[in-house]
Every structure is written in C-alpha cells, then in structure tokens.
Amino acid sequence: MTTDLTRSQRLKAATATIHDTLDQRIMALDPFSSPARYVCFLRAQQAFHDALAPLYAAPTMQALIPDLAERDRSAAIAADIADLTLPLPAVPDARPVEPVDMSTSLGWLYVAEGSSLGAAFLLKAAQRIGLSTDHGARHLAGHPEGRAAHWRRFTARIDDATMTAEDEDRMIAAARDAFTRFRTLVDAAFA
Ligand code: HEM
Description:
CATH topology: Heme Oxygenase, Chain A
Shape: globular
Number of strands: 0
Distance between the termini: 40 Å
Bound molecules: protoporphyrin IX containing FE
Number of helices: 9
CATH superfamily: Heme oxygenase-like
C-alpha cells in the first residue's frame, strides 16, 4: 500500500515508469544534437501545450490554481520556434483537452507542469548547441522563485483538492494519457 504518500506522490509513483520510458525515448532521439533536431522537440511541445490551452484558460481550474494562466508556456514555445526560423515537422492534429472534470484536468496539467522540472537538465543540453533562455530555449527557463518551489505550489493544489478515490484514479489515468499523447507527438515530430 502507498497510503503513507501524499496524493501527488502517489501520482508520481503511478506515472514513474511511463515518465522514464518517455525520457529515454526523447534522449534516444538526440533532440539536442542540432537546432534542426531540437525544432522537432519544440514542435511536439507546441502541439502538446496547444492541446492543453482549454485547461489553462478554464475558470474552474484557474479558481483552483490561481497562477494557472501565467504557468502556461505556450507563448514561450511559440517564441522559441520563431527564434529558430527552421521548417517545422508535421504532427497529428492536437485534439484539444477540454476541462471535463477537475481530476482529469489535474492529471493533464500535472504532466505539463512537471515537464518544467526535468527542463533544468534539458536547458543545459540546449545551451550546448547555442540556445539560451533569450533565444530558442525560453520555455525551458526556470521560474524566478525556483523550479522546486514553483512546482511545490502546484502539487500542493493537487494535495489539497477534495477528491474521492475514484477521482484520484481518474487523475492518474489522465496523467498516463498525457504522457502517451506526448510520446505520440514526439514520435511523429521526429519521424
Ligand atoms: C529527456 C526528457 C526528460 C528528462 C531528462 C526528464 C527528467 C526529469 C527529472 C530529472 C525530473 C525530476 C526533477 C526533480 O525532481 O527535481 C522530472 C520530473 C518530471 N517530468 Fe520529466 N523529463 C523529461 C521529459 C519529460 C516530459 C516530456 C514530460 C511531460 C510530457 C515530463 C514530465 C515530468 C513530470 C510530470 C515530472 C514530475 C514528477 C514528480 O515529481 O511528480 N518529463 N523529469
């Protein structure tokens, strides 16, 4: 049993394998070997975040997470793409993720927000090919308050939300769907 964990820790544990598989897949694609490969990664990021726009804009979710709108990295991703001025690969149409219920929305947002944590490592790799948080790698920048503190404020919302066990299962399923979606987009962008 994992009842001694917080809800967000249970979510992390339930998605650790799918995260690690995605992480290994991305690194195997060598996205930081050149700007031309990096732009494929950016395209996947853009399609993923575009699909989540309805969640970041949802009044119900903004009520739960007061800084939600400013957490949205879509504008930074678009600026990164504009910086690179390289042709973009095609990816499947990004099916928008609508805010059907709070738990499902939190599962998707968890994946989008959590990707900023690993981004510390990705930023270092991006810097080695001449990118920076002012050019091409804006969306990988840490939050001024620090990545960890910014992340803890988000997971606190997951931990404090009122949820039944069924709600929590739905949140976990949604997070897995989100990782699967990212995987599909990455595979298409690098194909
Ligand atoms: C090569 C690519 C990636 C690497 C190397 C990587 C690495 C990491 C690392 C090291 C952490 C833990 C950071 C910490 O605890 O301070 C982390 C957390 C996380 N990453 Fe990734 N990541 C990658 C891609 C992604 C992607 C594409 C997503 C989402 C689509 C993602 C979602 C998450 C989530 C949700 C967490 C938070 C886990 C938690 O603490 O609950 N990661 N990642």
